[in-house]
Amino acid sequence: MSHTIEQLDAEASVLLAKYSSNGLKNKDRLAIPVQEMPSQAPEIRVNNMEEVALGYTEAQVIVESMRCLQCATAPCVDGCPVRIDIPGFIALAAKGDFARSIATIKDSSMLPSVCGRVCPQESQCQLTCTVGKVHKNVDKAVAIGRIERYVADWEANHGTRSIPPVLSSTGKKVGVIGSGPASMTAAADLRRAGHEVVMFEALHKAGGVLVYGIPEFRLPKRIVEEELHTLSDMGVKIEYNFLVGRTATINDLMEREGFSALFIGSGAGLPNFLNIPGENLIGVFSANEYLTRSNLMKAYDKAKAGTPLFDSKKVLVFGGGNVAMDAARTAKRLGADEVNIVYRRTSEEMPARREEVVHAHEEGIIFKYLHAPKEILGDDKGRVTGVKVILCELGAPDSSGRRSPVEIPGSEQVLSCDTVIVAIGNSSNPLIEKTTKGLKVDRKGHIVVDEETCATSMPGVYAGGDIVLGSATVILAMGQGRKAAKAMNEYLLAQEKVGGSAT
Question: What is the b/e burial string over 374-386, where b = at least 16 CB atoms within 10 angstroms of the residue's CB?
Fold first, then answer.
């Protein structure tokens, strides 16, 4: 049962009176309960697009920070793709020194407000947390992401947003393709080194998947805009409506536009489909399109929307990842009477974050496990009327380690609906590959890079994020952006030492 923010704050205040961060023994820290995240009540939030999780109170964040054992080996840092000094920023938060806490995070990450909200800490830094291991439950680990979110929001609310320092100009011009988390991280690190940085964004708004993919109720767009303002204040230039591969190619930028190096972080925006009959019917959407219409074009705001809203009453969402949860919960907020998630496996194999699944259940989303779509049905006007599915049972594990769904002969049934949203992943857009001679990609169209440097098969060209990894997390994309920027700085320095020709 969830509690109000006032109740949770009062409970945390009692714990603060009981414990002091000075002189706490490990057994005391282990006895402190995990602080519950305050959130909007389900019956209220399904009627708005405002953020569901409301964030810790000051008392809560200090209490949660006091749970950290300050391990000498810092296993949590090993679980962080950008290697934030997690014990360091938590120790400062426990003392209420939020300014130094956020400064510690920003030594390694420029997107703490974002990562604190959408990163799967339970499978990264919190998975390796000693507290969770002692309790034999990752849910009992220190809530690293929630602490990170608090101190990042504290900085924003106090108007103390800092601009990273920029070294004197190197005279080198560097291009960054895309403006998602990998590109934003690479651009910041490259600009810090003193290079002129130009970011190319295909859409009319920057932010990539953070803007068009993740709903407002999980990640308010003002937060992404603030981070982009930081880049602009550092001197990063952003060119909008610039589609690399059409407006100009990689070779054009390198050979004619004077760029010394390029980073490709264009994401994986080509939606996958099941290739079953009926996917071309009216009322079938890719999750990409559906979420872009809502998030980027504000379809939910009927008075100001930049796109029509499809009036759905009964929705089926194919898939079990975070994107499927986002699509289903968005459909509920856009007015659907009933929303179902159709998934071929069980809840145990579902890759979506547990928190998002819990929120979906609370909001009345129906889960149809062990159902595999076989055909989308329509009427004589070409509109969706239902989906033929077949029941499954789990067989042996597949290459991903999850048990494979095995169809049960003769178990077909029809689920009625007027809307289908396909959320089964994305592939890389082939445009850059097709227009770039010498760029090596794998069989799935992902750019092949060196694991340590993110260098591609083309000299001076680097890549990271979903265009390399497929559908990855924000923090993994950021990790690649950081690796690439480091290697690019070394490449540019080597060019300078040999008089402009790379070694």
Answer: bbbbbeeeeebbb
Among candidates 393, 351, 388, which has minimal Cα distance to 369? Answer: 393
Q: What's the predicted TM-score (pTM) here?
A: 0.93
Which of 147, 150, 12 minimizes the C-alpha distance to 87?
A: 147
Contacts of 111 (CB under 8 A, 6+ apart): 181, 184, 185, 227, 474, 478
Amino acid in the structure at residue 234:
M
Helix or strand (DSSP H, E) at 13: helix 5-18
Q: Which DSSP symbol is given to 389?
A: E
91 within 8 A of 41, measured Cβ to Cβ: no
- Exposure string of 43-55, with b = 16+ CB inside 10 Å and e = fewer, is eebbeebebbbeb
Distance between CA atoms of 383 and 178, rounded to whole angstroms? Answer: 36
Beta bridge partners of 3: none
Phi then psi for 382, rounded to 5 degrees?
80, 20
CA torsion sign for 48, 38, 34, 92 is positive
| The residue to which tokens 């006091």 are assigned | 66
Q: Give the dihedral sign, CA 178/212/202/251.
A: positive
CB neighbour burial string for 137-161, b if at least 16 within 10 angstroms, e if fewer: ebebbbbbbbbbbbbbbbbbeeeee
What is the end-to-end Cα distance of the chain in Å, rounded? 62
3-state helix, strand, coil in the chain (%, to 5): 35, 15, 45
Rounded CA separation 231/111 (Å): 11
pLDDT digits (tens, 9 = 90+) for 192-237: 999 999 999 999 999 999 999 999 999 999 999 999 999 999 999 9
Tens digits of per-residue pLDDT, 321-374? 999 999 999 999 999 999 999 999 999 999 999 999 999 999 999 999 999 999
Handedness of CA 229, 235, 239, 244 (dihedral sign): negative
Record the tokens describing residue 291, joined without a space: 């979420």
Q: Which distant-in-sequence residues (6+ apart) come within 8 Å of 241 by Cβ?
A: 201, 202, 203, 204, 247
All structural domains of the chain, each given as residue ranges with its CATH number in brackets, are 5-157 (1.10.1060.10), 173-269+428-497 (3.50.50.60), 271-425 (3.50.50.60)
Provide the token pair at 131. Answer: 């507290």
Query: For 262, phi and psi rounded to 5 degrees?
Result: -135, 145
